[in-house]
Design a protein that fits this description.
Elements: E1 2-6, H1 12-24, E2 30-35, H2 41-45, E3 48-51, H3 60-70, E4 75-78, H4 83-87, H5 91-95, E5 100-101, H6 106-113, H7 115-124, E6 132-133, H8 135-139, E7 147-151, E8 161-163, H9 166-172, E9 179-183, E10 188-197, E11 204-214, E12 217-223, H10 227-238, E13 245-253, E14 259-265, H11 272-277, H12 282-290, E15 307-309
Parallel strand pairs: 1-2, 1-4, 2-3, 4-5
Antiparallel strand pairs: 6-9, 7-8, 7-9, 10-11, 10-13, 11-12, 12-15, 13-14
């Protein structure tokens, strides 16, 4: 079986987890990676790698289609946000060559890529979410500081920050792309991985507390058995348009212990290997489903109290190129 991790970048741990799952299943698995540069970790760890055009370039989907056809790719896992809405309309086309794009439907992408739609979604399904605010109301003192600003379609927490006063707001508003303001929701931050599989059947969820975050990705995290978060995240996943693969929701839990949901990422999260190590073996379950077998999901699906400490690991490359002073 050949699978593809597209726009894989630094996802070396995810690649290793798929490779390990293939070995445990006795499956001759070949992992292909695409990325814009050959100087990325996953590119160098892959069995096969191809240098990709930018996902927003005209012709990107045609290029990816050709890659899948040439390499007889069975499953494609897109790993960056900008790629998801582009590919969400292409599932039927790729199926004609036996390739399954493991990503949710266009409706889920609309929620994932537009924070205003995200707020409306959580409100519609009855979950608490920070209220969106207008610039005028905040300036007029109708809502107290601090507030939170973020780009409407941002990713990796780029451009997201707490606004402490009017001076802060005046400075950051024009410096934030398509800015929106929302209530600040202090508390403990969680990502909840939800397994939807290849058919959209929501099977389990794993809350991961984000103990420390660097550049939008969790650096230190811990699994916690929190039934409310599990139930609410699975409820949210079932309300999505054609959920597929592994997705994750993010929330803040304050002193009142009420989860306030802030985000949907309709893809593997950077911290998903923590869930795998804690027993929620998403890569193995996905490969089992691809083989036409039932995913062997036990109850409970994961161990609570497993902590992940991530660090920078070096990959060394040899080159014959020399530079002249």
């Amino acid at each position: 079986m050949n699978i593809l991790l597209s726009s894989a970048g630094r996802r070396g741990a995810l690649l290793r987890d798929f490779r390990r799952a293939g070995r445990e299943l006795g499956l001759p698995l070949q992992i292909l990676v695409t990325d814009m540069t050959s100087e990325s970790v996953a590119y160098r760890m892959a069995d096969i790698a191809e240098t990709a055009p930018r996902v927003t370039e005209t012709g990107y989907t045609d290029w990816l289609f050709d890659v899948c056809k040439r390499h007889n790719i069975r499953l494609v896992f897109p790993l960056i946000d900008p790629e998801l809405p582009i590919l969400s309309h292409e599932r039927a086309r790729f199926q004609t060559i036996g390739t399954q794009l493991v990503l949710s439907g266009p409706g889920a992408m609309a929620i994932s890529n537009d924070k205003r739609v995200t707020e409306q979604f959580f409100q519609r399904i009855g979950l608490h979410t920070p209220r969106l605010l207008t610039m005028e109301d905040v300036h007029a003192g109708k809502h107290p500081f601090p507030v939170f600003i973020k780009p409407n379609n941002g990713s990796s927490s780029i451009g997201s920050r707490i606004i402490k006063d009017v001076e802060d707001l005046t400075y950051w508003w024009p410096r934030t792309q398509d800015p929106l303001l929302m209530e600040w929701a202090p508390g403990r931050e969680y990502t909840v991985d939800v397994y939807c599989g290849l058919t959209g059947q929501v099977r389990c969820a794993v809350p991961r507390r984000r103990l420390r975050v660097r550049h939008g990705e969790v650096e230190k995290g811990r699994t916690e058995m929190l039934p409310t978060l599990i139930e609410q995240a699975m409820h949210a996943a079932r309300e999505l348009d054609s959920p597929r693969g592994v997705i994750n929701f993010q929330c803040m839990v304050g002193d009142d212990n009420i989860p306030r949901w802030i985000e949907l990422n309709a893809r593997f999260g950077g911290g998903a290997p923590l869930s795998h190590h804690a027993g929620a073996d998403f890569p193995k379950w996905l490969l089992q489903e691809a083989l036409g077998k039932a995913a062997t999901i036990s109850a409970p699906a994961f161990r609570s109290g497993v902590t992940m400490l991530r660090w920078d690991e070096a990959v060394f490359l040899e080159t014959k190129e020399h530079t002249t002073p």
